Amino acid sequence: MNFLLALLSCISCIVASPLQIPLLSGEELDWAAAECSSSFSDNGKGNNTICIQKVWDPVIDADINGAPVNNQFCGYMIPAGAGKNPVKLFFWVVMSETDPTKDPVVLWMNGGPGSSSLYGLFNQWGPRIINRARTDAVQFITNQFRMTEKLTWVFLEQPSGVGYSRGRPNVEDSQTAAIDISTFISTLFLPSTTFKLNGNQVSFAGRDFHIAGESYSGHWIPAIGSYLINNKKLTNLNLKSFVIGNAWTDAALAGEATFKLLCGPAPPLTLPGSTPAAVQSNCSLMPQWISDCKAAIQECRRPGKKPPCEYYGACQDAWSETWAAKFGRNVYDANEDHASFEARNLFFKDKWTPFMNNRNRKIRFGVPTSVTWSLGSQAMMTRFDRSGDQVKSFIPEVQDILNAGFDFLFYAGDQDLICPFTLVKDTALNTVWTETDPDPSLGTKTAKFKKCAARAETTYKKLSSPSSPGYASYIRAGRLSYARLFGAGHMVNEKKPAEAKHMFENWILNRAMFQECDPGP
Protein backbone atom coordinates (compact mmCIF):
# COMPACT_ATOMS: atom_id res chain seq x y z
CA MET A 1 0.00 0.00 0.00
CA ASN A 2 1.62 3.27 -1.13
CA PHE A 3 1.09 5.91 1.54
CA LEU A 4 2.98 7.98 4.11
CA LEU A 5 2.37 7.12 7.74
CA ALA A 6 3.04 9.84 10.28
CA LEU A 7 4.24 8.52 13.61
CA LEU A 8 3.31 11.09 16.24
CA SER A 9 4.79 11.66 19.66
CA CYS A 10 7.87 9.57 18.93
CA ILE A 11 10.44 9.46 21.74
CA SER A 12 9.81 12.35 24.11
CA CYS A 13 11.17 12.36 27.64
CA ILE A 14 11.37 16.06 28.40
CA VAL A 15 9.42 19.07 27.21
CA ALA A 16 11.24 21.87 25.43
CA SER A 17 11.29 25.11 27.37
CA PRO A 18 12.89 28.51 26.93
CA LEU A 19 15.30 27.69 29.74
CA GLN A 20 18.76 26.42 28.90
CA ILE A 21 19.35 22.91 30.21
CA PRO A 22 23.00 21.95 30.73
CA LEU A 23 23.81 18.65 29.10
CA LEU A 24 25.92 17.34 31.96
CA SER A 25 23.55 18.36 34.75
CA GLY A 26 23.06 14.76 35.81
CA GLU A 27 19.59 14.48 34.30
CA GLU A 28 18.84 11.73 31.82
CA LEU A 29 18.23 13.84 28.76
CA ASP A 30 16.57 12.26 25.76
CA TRP A 31 15.02 13.26 22.45
CA ALA A 32 13.28 16.47 23.48
CA ALA A 33 11.60 17.29 20.19
CA ALA A 34 12.12 14.25 18.02
CA GLU A 35 9.76 13.46 15.20
CA CYS A 36 9.63 10.23 13.26
CA SER A 37 7.97 9.56 9.94
CA SER A 38 7.76 6.52 7.74
CA SER A 39 7.56 6.12 3.99
CA PHE A 40 6.65 3.02 2.04
CA SER A 41 9.71 1.29 0.59
CA ASP A 42 9.73 0.39 -3.09
CA ASN A 43 11.44 -2.91 -2.25
CA GLY A 44 8.20 -4.25 -0.80
CA LYS A 45 9.68 -4.89 2.64
CA GLY A 46 7.63 -2.29 4.53
CA ASN A 47 8.47 1.22 5.66
CA ASN A 48 11.67 3.22 5.85
CA THR A 49 11.66 5.23 9.07
CA ILE A 50 13.54 8.44 9.79
CA CYS A 51 13.70 10.22 13.16
CA ILE A 52 15.03 13.74 13.67
CA GLN A 53 15.66 15.92 16.72
CA LYS A 54 17.07 19.38 17.35
CA VAL A 55 20.32 18.87 19.24
CA TRP A 56 21.23 22.03 21.15
CA ASP A 57 17.98 23.87 21.86
CA PRO A 58 17.09 24.15 24.74
CA VAL A 59 19.78 21.70 25.84
CA ILE A 60 23.31 23.09 25.65
CA ASP A 61 26.64 21.31 25.76
CA ALA A 62 29.10 23.78 27.25
CA ASP A 63 32.03 21.70 26.04
CA ILE A 64 30.96 22.13 22.40
CA ASN A 65 28.84 25.28 22.01
CA GLY A 66 28.23 26.96 25.35
CA ALA A 67 25.05 28.58 24.04
CA PRO A 68 21.81 27.48 22.38
CA VAL A 69 22.10 26.60 18.69
CA ASN A 70 18.89 26.09 16.75
CA ASN A 71 20.13 24.96 13.33
CA GLN A 72 21.65 21.56 14.16
CA PHE A 73 19.75 18.27 14.10
CA CYS A 74 20.68 14.66 14.59
CA GLY A 75 18.75 11.49 14.00
CA TYR A 76 18.73 8.02 12.54
CA MET A 77 17.23 6.17 9.61
CA ILE A 78 15.95 2.60 9.76
CA PRO A 79 15.66 0.93 6.33
CA ALA A 80 12.62 -1.21 5.57
CA GLY A 81 12.68 -4.87 6.52
CA ALA A 82 14.26 -4.28 9.94
CA GLY A 83 14.50 -7.34 12.12
CA LYS A 84 15.19 -7.70 15.84
CA ASN A 85 18.43 -5.73 15.53
CA PRO A 86 17.60 -3.18 12.82
CA VAL A 87 20.12 -1.08 10.96
CA LYS A 88 20.14 2.45 12.37
CA LEU A 89 22.20 4.93 10.37
CA PHE A 90 23.08 7.93 12.53
CA PHE A 91 23.33 11.36 10.91
CA TRP A 92 23.90 14.98 11.86
CA VAL A 93 22.58 18.02 9.96
CA VAL A 94 23.94 21.58 10.13
CA MET A 95 21.64 23.99 8.33
CA SER A 96 23.07 26.77 6.17
CA GLU A 97 23.50 30.08 7.96
CA THR A 98 22.43 32.02 4.85
CA ASP A 99 19.15 30.49 3.64
CA PRO A 100 18.42 27.11 5.23
CA THR A 101 15.21 26.80 3.19
CA LYS A 102 16.92 27.03 -0.22
CA ASP A 103 20.69 26.60 -0.06
CA PRO A 104 22.28 23.45 -1.57
CA VAL A 105 22.65 20.29 0.53
CA VAL A 106 25.94 18.39 0.80
CA LEU A 107 26.07 14.81 2.08
CA TRP A 108 29.50 14.13 3.62
CA MET A 109 31.09 10.76 4.39
CA ASN A 110 34.55 10.02 5.77
CA GLY A 111 36.46 6.96 4.64
CA GLY A 112 38.11 4.05 6.37
CA PRO A 113 36.36 1.80 5.69
CA GLY A 114 34.93 2.29 9.15
CA SER A 115 35.73 5.96 9.85
CA SER A 116 33.18 8.10 11.68
CA SER A 117 31.84 11.07 9.70
CA LEU A 118 31.55 13.00 12.94
CA TYR A 119 35.27 13.53 12.38
CA GLY A 120 34.22 15.56 9.36
CA LEU A 121 31.76 17.53 11.48
CA PHE A 122 33.91 18.16 14.54
CA ASN A 123 37.41 18.25 13.04
CA GLN A 124 37.01 19.50 9.48
CA TRP A 125 33.93 21.25 8.08
CA GLY A 126 31.52 22.05 10.93
CA PRO A 127 30.89 25.36 12.73
CA ARG A 128 32.73 24.24 15.89
CA ILE A 129 35.83 22.10 15.63
CA ILE A 130 38.38 20.57 17.97
CA ASN A 131 41.30 22.82 18.81
CA ARG A 132 44.18 20.81 17.36
CA ALA A 133 46.68 22.88 19.34
CA ARG A 134 45.43 21.21 22.53
CA THR A 135 46.41 17.63 23.25
CA ASP A 136 45.61 17.48 26.96
CA ALA A 137 41.82 17.90 26.61
CA VAL A 138 38.99 18.19 24.09
CA GLN A 139 38.41 21.88 23.45
CA PHE A 140 36.12 23.24 20.74
CA ILE A 141 36.70 26.52 18.92
CA THR A 142 34.75 28.42 16.28
CA ASN A 143 35.69 27.27 12.80
CA GLN A 144 36.50 30.44 10.88
CA PHE A 145 36.42 28.42 7.66
CA ARG A 146 33.26 26.40 8.33
CA MET A 147 31.46 25.09 5.29
CA THR A 148 27.98 25.81 6.63
CA GLU A 149 27.79 29.55 5.95
CA LYS A 150 26.23 29.04 2.51
CA LEU A 151 25.56 25.30 2.42
CA THR A 152 23.60 22.77 4.48
CA TRP A 153 25.74 19.77 5.40
CA VAL A 154 24.61 16.27 6.36
CA PHE A 155 27.22 14.04 8.06
CA LEU A 156 26.32 10.34 7.78
CA GLU A 157 27.82 7.59 9.95
CA GLN A 158 27.91 4.59 7.62
CA PRO A 159 27.80 1.64 7.08
CA SER A 160 26.06 0.15 10.13
CA GLY A 161 28.72 -0.49 12.76
CA VAL A 162 30.49 2.85 12.22
CA GLY A 163 30.40 5.51 14.93
CA TYR A 164 26.92 5.65 16.45
CA SER A 165 25.33 3.61 13.62
CA ARG A 166 24.35 0.07 14.51
CA GLY A 167 22.50 -3.00 13.25
CA ARG A 168 22.77 -6.26 11.37
CA PRO A 169 23.79 -7.79 9.09
CA ASN A 170 27.44 -6.74 9.12
CA VAL A 171 28.37 -4.94 5.91
CA GLU A 172 31.53 -6.14 4.17
CA ASP A 173 31.49 -4.43 0.77
CA SER A 174 30.75 -1.03 -0.74
CA GLN A 175 27.90 -2.17 -2.99
CA THR A 176 25.93 -3.45 0.00
CA ALA A 177 26.64 -0.26 1.91
CA ALA A 178 25.38 1.75 -1.08
CA ILE A 179 21.91 0.21 -0.82
CA ASP A 180 21.26 1.50 2.72
CA ILE A 181 22.90 4.86 1.95
CA SER A 182 20.72 5.29 -1.15
CA THR A 183 17.65 4.53 0.95
CA PHE A 184 18.80 7.15 3.45
CA ILE A 185 19.22 9.72 0.68
CA SER A 186 15.81 8.99 -0.82
CA THR A 187 14.13 9.22 2.58
CA LEU A 188 15.97 12.40 3.57
CA PHE A 189 14.75 14.21 0.45
CA LEU A 190 11.08 13.26 0.75
CA PRO A 191 8.73 16.25 1.24
CA SER A 192 7.46 14.52 4.38
CA THR A 193 10.93 14.59 6.00
CA THR A 194 11.10 17.99 7.67
CA PHE A 195 13.15 19.92 10.21
CA LYS A 196 11.59 22.37 12.68
CA LEU A 197 13.49 25.62 12.25
CA ASN A 198 12.40 29.09 13.38
CA GLY A 199 8.75 28.08 13.45
CA ASN A 200 8.84 26.53 9.96
CA GLN A 201 9.00 22.99 8.63
CA VAL A 202 12.07 22.88 6.39
CA SER A 203 12.33 20.18 3.72
CA PHE A 204 15.23 19.23 1.45
CA ALA A 205 12.91 18.19 -1.40
CA GLY A 206 13.95 19.79 -4.70
CA ARG A 207 17.20 21.25 -3.35
CA ASP A 208 20.45 21.14 -5.27
CA PHE A 209 22.25 18.10 -3.87
CA HIS A 210 25.92 17.09 -3.88
CA ILE A 211 27.53 13.88 -2.54
CA ALA A 212 31.02 14.37 -1.10
CA GLY A 213 33.65 12.58 0.95
CA GLU A 214 37.31 11.66 1.16
CA SER A 215 39.68 8.70 1.15
CA TYR A 216 37.67 5.43 1.08
CA SER A 217 34.78 7.51 -0.22
CA GLY A 218 36.56 6.70 -3.47
CA HIS A 219 34.62 3.45 -3.03
CA TRP A 220 31.51 4.66 -1.18
CA ILE A 221 30.59 7.48 -3.52
CA PRO A 222 30.99 5.76 -6.91
CA ALA A 223 29.04 2.78 -5.53
CA ILE A 224 26.24 5.06 -4.31
CA GLY A 225 26.09 7.05 -7.54
CA SER A 226 26.05 3.94 -9.71
CA TYR A 227 23.33 2.36 -7.56
CA LEU A 228 21.14 5.48 -7.71
CA ILE A 229 21.53 5.67 -11.50
CA ASN A 230 21.15 2.00 -12.39
CA ASN A 231 18.21 1.42 -10.04
CA LYS A 232 16.35 4.54 -11.15
CA LYS A 233 16.48 6.21 -7.72
CA LEU A 234 17.02 9.75 -9.03
CA THR A 235 13.38 10.74 -9.60
CA ASN A 236 12.98 12.88 -6.48
CA LEU A 237 16.59 14.09 -6.30
CA ASN A 238 18.03 17.26 -7.79
CA LEU A 239 21.48 15.66 -7.79
CA LYS A 240 24.17 17.93 -9.22
CA SER A 241 27.67 16.55 -8.59
CA PHE A 242 30.04 14.20 -6.81
CA VAL A 243 33.21 15.29 -4.96
CA ILE A 244 35.97 13.09 -3.49
CA GLY A 245 39.17 14.21 -1.77
CA ASN A 246 42.35 12.08 -1.87
CA ALA A 247 40.31 9.18 -3.17
CA TRP A 248 41.20 5.52 -2.81
CA THR A 249 39.40 4.22 -5.92
CA ASP A 250 41.64 1.63 -7.59
CA ALA A 251 44.33 -0.09 -5.52
CA ALA A 252 46.03 -1.49 -8.63
CA LEU A 253 47.20 2.03 -9.48
CA ALA A 254 48.74 2.74 -6.08
CA GLY A 255 52.21 1.24 -6.61
CA GLU A 256 52.99 3.11 -9.81
CA ALA A 257 51.52 6.27 -8.27
CA THR A 258 53.95 5.90 -5.35
CA PHE A 259 56.85 5.53 -7.77
CA LYS A 260 55.78 8.71 -9.60
CA LEU A 261 55.48 10.53 -6.27
CA LEU A 262 58.82 9.64 -4.70
CA CYS A 263 61.18 8.26 -7.36
CA GLY A 264 62.87 9.47 -10.51
CA PRO A 265 65.30 12.34 -11.11
CA ALA A 266 62.89 15.06 -9.94
CA PRO A 267 60.09 13.54 -7.84
CA PRO A 268 57.24 15.90 -6.94
CA LEU A 269 57.60 15.02 -3.25
CA THR A 270 60.78 14.80 -1.19
CA LEU A 271 60.48 13.23 2.25
CA PRO A 272 62.05 15.52 4.88
CA GLY A 273 64.91 13.86 6.72
CA SER A 274 65.44 11.13 4.13
CA THR A 275 68.73 10.66 2.33
CA PRO A 276 68.89 10.33 -1.47
CA ALA A 277 70.69 7.00 -1.10
CA ALA A 278 67.99 5.53 1.15
CA VAL A 279 65.21 6.71 -1.14
CA GLN A 280 67.01 5.40 -4.22
CA SER A 281 67.46 2.02 -2.51
CA ASN A 282 63.71 1.78 -2.06
CA CYS A 283 63.03 3.06 -5.57
CA SER A 284 65.28 0.42 -7.13
CA LEU A 285 63.08 -2.29 -5.61
CA MET A 286 59.80 -0.73 -6.66
CA PRO A 287 59.39 -2.48 -10.06
CA GLN A 288 59.36 -5.89 -8.38
CA TRP A 289 57.15 -4.71 -5.53
CA ILE A 290 54.67 -3.22 -7.98
CA SER A 291 54.60 -6.43 -10.03
CA ASP A 292 54.01 -8.58 -6.92
CA CYS A 293 51.25 -6.28 -5.73
CA LYS A 294 49.44 -6.24 -9.06
CA ALA A 295 49.54 -10.04 -9.21
CA ALA A 296 47.99 -10.31 -5.73
CA ILE A 297 45.27 -7.81 -6.62
CA GLN A 298 44.46 -9.62 -9.86
CA GLU A 299 44.09 -12.85 -7.88
CA CYS A 300 41.65 -11.12 -5.52
CA ARG A 301 39.70 -9.84 -8.53
CA ARG A 302 39.58 -13.20 -10.29
CA PRO A 303 35.98 -14.18 -11.11
CA GLY A 304 34.75 -16.79 -8.67
CA LYS A 305 37.47 -15.99 -6.12
CA LYS A 306 36.19 -16.63 -2.61
CA PRO A 307 37.32 -14.81 0.55
CA PRO A 308 39.70 -14.20 2.07
CA CYS A 309 41.44 -11.79 -0.27
CA GLU A 310 45.10 -11.79 0.73
CA TYR A 311 46.93 -8.89 -0.85
CA TYR A 312 48.50 -6.72 1.85
CA GLY A 313 51.70 -8.71 2.32
CA ALA A 314 52.42 -8.39 -1.39
CA CYS A 315 51.43 -4.72 -1.63
CA GLN A 316 52.63 -3.01 1.53
CA ASP A 317 56.16 -2.28 0.26
CA ALA A 318 54.83 -0.75 -2.96
CA TRP A 319 52.44 1.64 -1.25
CA SER A 320 53.45 5.06 0.02
CA GLU A 321 52.00 4.57 3.50
CA THR A 322 54.79 2.04 4.17
CA TRP A 323 57.32 4.59 2.98
CA ALA A 324 55.89 7.00 5.55
CA ALA A 325 56.60 4.51 8.34
CA LYS A 326 60.08 3.66 7.04
CA PHE A 327 61.18 7.27 6.76
CA GLY A 328 59.44 8.48 9.91
CA ARG A 329 56.76 10.65 8.31
CA ASN A 330 53.10 11.28 9.12
CA VAL A 331 51.11 9.20 6.65
CA TYR A 332 48.54 12.00 6.33
CA ASP A 333 51.05 14.81 5.81
CA ALA A 334 54.63 14.26 4.67
CA ASN A 335 55.67 17.60 6.18
CA GLU A 336 55.03 16.22 9.67
CA ASP A 337 57.01 13.49 11.40
CA HIS A 338 55.69 10.12 12.53
CA ALA A 339 55.60 11.30 16.15
CA SER A 340 52.85 13.77 15.23
CA PHE A 341 50.86 10.88 13.75
CA GLU A 342 51.24 8.88 16.97
CA ALA A 343 50.30 11.89 19.11
CA ARG A 344 47.19 12.43 17.01
CA ASN A 345 46.10 8.81 17.44
CA LEU A 346 46.75 8.98 21.18
CA PHE A 347 44.60 12.11 21.52
CA PHE A 348 41.68 10.51 19.70
CA LYS A 349 41.99 7.33 21.75
CA ASP A 350 42.48 8.86 25.21
CA LYS A 351 40.56 12.14 24.94
CA TRP A 352 38.04 12.32 22.13
CA THR A 353 36.69 8.76 22.33
CA PRO A 354 35.69 9.11 26.02
CA PHE A 355 34.22 12.53 25.18
CA MET A 356 31.96 11.02 22.51
CA ASN A 357 31.01 8.14 24.81
CA ASN A 358 29.83 10.37 27.66
CA ARG A 359 26.55 8.84 28.84
CA ASN A 360 24.44 12.00 28.82
CA ARG A 361 25.87 13.06 25.50
CA LYS A 362 24.83 9.77 23.91
CA ILE A 363 21.36 10.04 25.42
CA ARG A 364 21.02 13.52 23.98
CA PHE A 365 22.00 12.21 20.55
CA GLY A 366 19.35 9.48 20.77
CA VAL A 367 22.03 6.79 20.98
CA PRO A 368 21.66 3.79 23.32
CA THR A 369 24.07 4.07 26.23
CA SER A 370 25.24 0.53 25.43
CA VAL A 371 26.64 1.71 22.07
CA THR A 372 30.37 2.47 22.09
CA TRP A 373 31.48 5.13 19.64
CA SER A 374 34.91 4.90 18.03
CA LEU A 375 36.66 7.00 15.43
CA GLY A 376 37.35 3.94 13.31
CA SER A 377 36.12 0.35 13.22
CA GLN A 378 38.93 -2.18 12.92
CA ALA A 379 36.35 -4.96 12.60
CA MET A 380 34.90 -3.31 9.52
CA MET A 381 38.35 -2.75 8.04
CA THR A 382 39.04 -6.47 8.44
CA ARG A 383 35.73 -7.48 6.82
CA PHE A 384 36.36 -5.24 3.82
CA ASP A 385 39.90 -6.61 3.52
CA ARG A 386 38.74 -10.22 3.53
CA SER A 387 35.94 -9.62 1.05
CA GLY A 388 38.29 -8.04 -1.49
CA ASP A 389 36.48 -4.71 -1.47
CA GLN A 390 39.69 -2.87 -0.56
CA VAL A 391 41.28 -3.79 -3.89
CA LYS A 392 38.21 -3.64 -6.12
CA SER A 393 38.28 -0.91 -8.77
CA PHE A 394 35.43 1.59 -8.63
CA ILE A 395 36.47 3.40 -11.80
CA PRO A 396 33.63 1.68 -13.73
CA GLU A 397 31.16 3.23 -11.28
CA VAL A 398 32.76 6.66 -11.76
CA GLN A 399 32.24 6.14 -15.49
CA ASP A 400 28.56 5.30 -14.88
CA ILE A 401 28.17 8.63 -13.09
CA LEU A 402 29.88 10.66 -15.82
CA ASN A 403 27.96 8.90 -18.58
CA ALA A 404 24.71 9.71 -16.77
CA GLY A 405 25.55 13.41 -17.12
CA PHE A 406 26.80 14.34 -13.64
CA ASP A 407 29.85 16.44 -12.81
CA PHE A 408 32.65 14.79 -10.82
CA LEU A 409 35.54 16.43 -8.95
CA PHE A 410 38.58 14.55 -7.69
CA TYR A 411 40.73 16.81 -5.49
CA ALA A 412 43.92 15.98 -3.61
CA GLY A 413 46.28 17.51 -1.08
CA ASP A 414 49.76 16.93 -2.48
CA GLN A 415 51.46 16.14 0.86
CA ASP A 416 49.32 13.05 1.51
CA LEU A 417 51.12 9.70 1.67
CA ILE A 418 48.18 7.35 2.16
CA CYS A 419 46.21 8.39 -0.95
CA PRO A 420 48.74 10.54 -2.83
CA PHE A 421 47.78 13.09 -5.44
CA THR A 422 49.58 11.04 -8.11
CA LEU A 423 47.14 8.19 -7.39
CA VAL A 424 44.16 10.53 -7.66
CA LYS A 425 45.44 11.94 -10.95
CA ASP A 426 46.04 8.44 -12.34
CA THR A 427 42.52 7.48 -11.30
CA ALA A 428 41.14 10.37 -13.35
CA LEU A 429 43.41 9.46 -16.27
CA ASN A 430 42.11 5.88 -16.26
CA THR A 431 38.50 7.03 -16.38
CA VAL A 432 36.79 6.75 -19.78
CA TRP A 433 33.40 8.27 -20.53
CA THR A 434 31.36 9.02 -23.64
CA GLU A 435 30.98 12.82 -23.47
CA THR A 436 31.87 14.36 -26.82
CA ASP A 437 34.15 17.33 -27.46
CA PRO A 438 33.41 19.79 -30.28
CA ASP A 439 37.03 19.63 -31.45
CA PRO A 440 37.06 16.86 -34.11
CA SER A 441 40.75 16.21 -33.50
CA LEU A 442 39.88 15.15 -29.94
CA GLY A 443 36.44 13.64 -30.36
CA THR A 444 35.78 13.02 -26.67
CA LYS A 445 36.30 14.74 -23.35
CA THR A 446 38.27 11.65 -22.28
CA ALA A 447 40.83 12.36 -25.00
CA LYS A 448 40.88 16.04 -24.07
CA PHE A 449 41.50 15.27 -20.39
CA LYS A 450 44.42 12.98 -21.25
CA LYS A 451 45.96 15.51 -23.61
CA CYS A 452 45.63 18.32 -21.07
CA ALA A 453 47.13 16.15 -18.32
CA ALA A 454 50.12 15.22 -20.49
CA ARG A 455 51.20 18.85 -20.69
CA ALA A 456 53.54 20.48 -18.17
CA GLU A 457 51.72 21.32 -14.95
CA THR A 458 52.68 24.96 -15.42
CA THR A 459 50.10 25.02 -18.23
CA TYR A 460 47.26 23.81 -16.00
CA LYS A 461 44.55 26.22 -14.92
CA LYS A 462 44.95 27.61 -11.39
CA LEU A 463 42.52 28.16 -8.54
CA SER A 464 43.06 31.48 -6.80
CA SER A 465 41.46 33.44 -4.00
CA PRO A 466 42.25 37.03 -2.99
CA SER A 467 44.35 35.79 -0.07
CA SER A 468 45.89 32.77 -1.79
CA PRO A 469 46.67 33.15 -5.51
CA GLY A 470 47.42 29.93 -7.37
CA TYR A 471 46.74 27.66 -4.39
CA ALA A 472 45.81 24.73 -6.65
CA SER A 473 46.23 23.52 -10.21
CA TYR A 474 43.39 21.76 -11.97
CA ILE A 475 42.21 20.07 -15.14
CA ARG A 476 38.61 20.17 -16.27
CA ALA A 477 37.36 18.41 -19.39
CA GLY A 478 33.59 18.47 -19.53
CA ARG A 479 32.11 16.64 -16.57
CA LEU A 480 35.40 15.43 -15.04
CA SER A 481 37.69 17.67 -12.98
CA TYR A 482 40.88 17.00 -11.02
CA ALA A 483 42.52 19.51 -8.64
CA ARG A 484 45.85 19.42 -6.76
CA LEU A 485 46.00 21.58 -3.61
CA PHE A 486 49.57 22.63 -2.92
CA GLY A 487 50.84 22.05 0.62
CA ALA A 488 47.70 20.26 1.83
CA GLY A 489 47.60 16.81 3.39
CA HIS A 490 45.05 13.99 3.38
CA MET A 491 42.48 16.20 5.15
CA VAL A 492 43.03 19.25 2.96
CA ASN A 493 41.38 21.73 5.30
CA GLU A 494 43.71 21.01 8.23
CA LYS A 495 46.63 22.86 6.63
CA LYS A 496 44.73 24.80 3.95
CA PRO A 497 41.30 25.59 5.44
CA ALA A 498 40.71 28.84 3.54
CA GLU A 499 41.69 27.26 0.24
CA ALA A 500 39.56 24.15 0.86
CA LYS A 501 36.54 26.34 1.63
CA HIS A 502 37.12 28.48 -1.46
CA MET A 503 37.41 25.43 -3.73
CA PHE A 504 34.38 23.66 -2.28
CA GLU A 505 32.06 26.66 -2.28
CA ASN A 506 32.98 27.63 -5.83
CA TRP A 507 32.55 24.07 -7.11
CA ILE A 508 29.02 24.01 -5.71
CA LEU A 509 27.91 27.63 -6.11
CA ASN A 510 30.03 28.92 -9.00
CA ARG A 511 31.25 25.95 -11.05
CA ALA A 512 31.85 28.17 -14.07
CA MET A 513 35.01 29.25 -12.25
CA PHE A 514 36.41 25.81 -13.14
CA GLN A 515 37.32 26.46 -16.77
CA GLU A 516 37.92 23.91 -19.52
CA CYS A 517 41.53 22.86 -19.83
CA ASP A 518 43.75 23.85 -22.73
CA PRO A 519 44.98 20.75 -24.62
CA GLY A 520 47.56 22.79 -26.52
CA PRO A 521 48.48 22.37 -30.17
Structure commentary:
The chain has 15 helices and 21 strands. The chain has a 13-stranded mixed sheet, with helices on both faces. Strands 2-5 form a two-stranded parallel ribbon. The protein has a two-stranded antiparallel ribbon with strand order 9-10. Residues 1-19 and 25-33 have low confidence and may be disordered. Helix 2 (174-188) crosses helix 3. The protein has a domain at 4-237: Alpha/Beta hydrolase fold, catalytic domain (Rossmann fold). With 521 residues, it is α/β, with parallel strands linked by helices. The longest helix is centred in the middle third of the chain and has 26 residues, at 276-301. Helices cover 31% and strands 22% of the residues. It starts with a strand and ends in a 12-residue tail after the last helix. It has helices at residues 118-125, 174-188, 217-230, 254-262, 276-301, 312-315, 320-326, 338-356, 359-364, 378-387, 395-403, 421-429, 445-454, 492-495, 497-509, and strands spanning 4-7, 21-22, 35-40, 47-56, 59-60, 69-78, 89-94, 105-109, 128-130, 140-142, 152-156, 194-197, 200-203, 208-214, 238-245, 329-330, 333-337, 407-413, 461-465, 468-477, 480-485.
Number of contiguous helices: 15
Number of strands: 21
CATH topology of the domain at 4-237: Rossmann fold
What kind of oligomer do you see? single chain
**What is the typical, i.e. mean, pLDDT?**
88
